Amino acid sequence: MRIAVLEDDKDQNKMIQLWLEMGGHSCHPHLDAASFQKDLKRSSFDLLILDWELSVSSGIEVLEWVRKQIDWRIPVLFMTARDSEEDIVYALEKGADDYIVKPASKAVTLARINALARRSNSDNPQGETLVFGDMTLNVRQSEARVAGELVELTDREFQLAVMLFTNVGRLISRDHLLETIWGITANIATRTVDTHVSRLRQKLHLTPEHGWQLKAIYQHGYRLEQLNDSQVA
Fold first, then answer.
1. At which residues is 4-aspartylphosphate found (predicted)?
2. In what order do the strands lie in the sheet containing 135-138?
3. Is the Cβ–Cβ distance between 49 and 19 less than 8 Å?
4. Domains in the chain, start-ordered, CATH in brackets?
5. Which strand (E) or helix (H) includes residue 215?
6. Is the dihedral of CA 205, 211, 216, 222 positive or negative?
7. Taking the chain, what is the end-to-end CA distance rounded to the nearest angstrom?
8. Could you read off the pLDDT of 7-22 as tens digits, one per residue?
9. CA angle 131, 136, 142 (to 5 degrees)
10. Is this prediction's pTM over 0.85?
11. Which one, of 204, 194, 196, 210, lies nearest residue 165 by Cα?
């Protein structure tokens, strides 16, 4: 998973980063709310980890901003020393998905993250056939069909299709796609994603006349949208 962390204690920040990387995740650490919010405006993530007590702003304020401005679906895990029942209830009511009281252990932290990942993906379990209108994606066999007709896709094109269709309506950043599908973590300029998206748009007919719109968002990434009848040409 691609995870953004907001923790203003440097030692805690490094420890969380180490745990996540040991667990096979990609960690993007931040020491302050401003840099964290800036990163979320230009990139996308699979999960967020927030501390409550920050030197500037607070984890709750950042959580409210995320839910209003960025994405209401992305899982958010609070990791904080605040341990009262009132605080836990308040954070969950504001939109947190889980809550860990410090000091946390690596085993519990990774288990909670994996549980949130399973919950987030529960609507589209791997190994099953995903159906989107006349589009079917057989994840186990890596097969795509449009109106029953098999469409030849490369492995990367199929992975891209699954990621886009399981995130319909959500902006997925270019670096998120590069990191998840190509394993490229360096911040480099590449046309790889753009080329694959263009091919996928053509092969799967992701155009308004077929009820879909795969939009390029300048300097950010891509968003796949399903159009209603009034929007279809």
1. 51
2. 129-132, 135-138, 143-146, 149-151
3. no
4. 2-120 (3.40.50.2300), 129-226 (1.10.10.10)
5. strand 212-217
6. negative
7. 37
8. 999 999 999 999 999 9
9. 125
10. no
11. 204
